[in-house]
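CHAIN AND CONFORMATION:

***
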Amino acid sequence: QVQLVESGGGLVQAGGSLRLSCAASGRIFRIDTMGWYRQAPGKQRELVASITTGGNIAYADTVKGRFTMSRDNVKNTVYLQMNSLKPDDTAVYFCNADIRPVVLSGSFNYWGLGTRVTVSS
């Protein structure tokens, strides 16, 4: 089965940096759009950034200029470089992807289990 596994979360002081990774595994034909979402306690899950197969990237206004998303199509991995972190960035960050499995026809949406990011002041 196709799986998404996030890594790289942790505790960091305000102004610091973290780099999140999301690795897709399984028999994958192609990964289409991938996205990073985050959810803080008591808040709705929100889109942080997304990237298409062609490399077009969109960022939420709250992270624009501080976060950078990239993908490695060979490794089926997407990254989120987070700089100048703020306490408001504290959340569980989830990886999301539209993936075309080898076994199944069509594109399906997958979620990782999330990685926690805590930014202290």
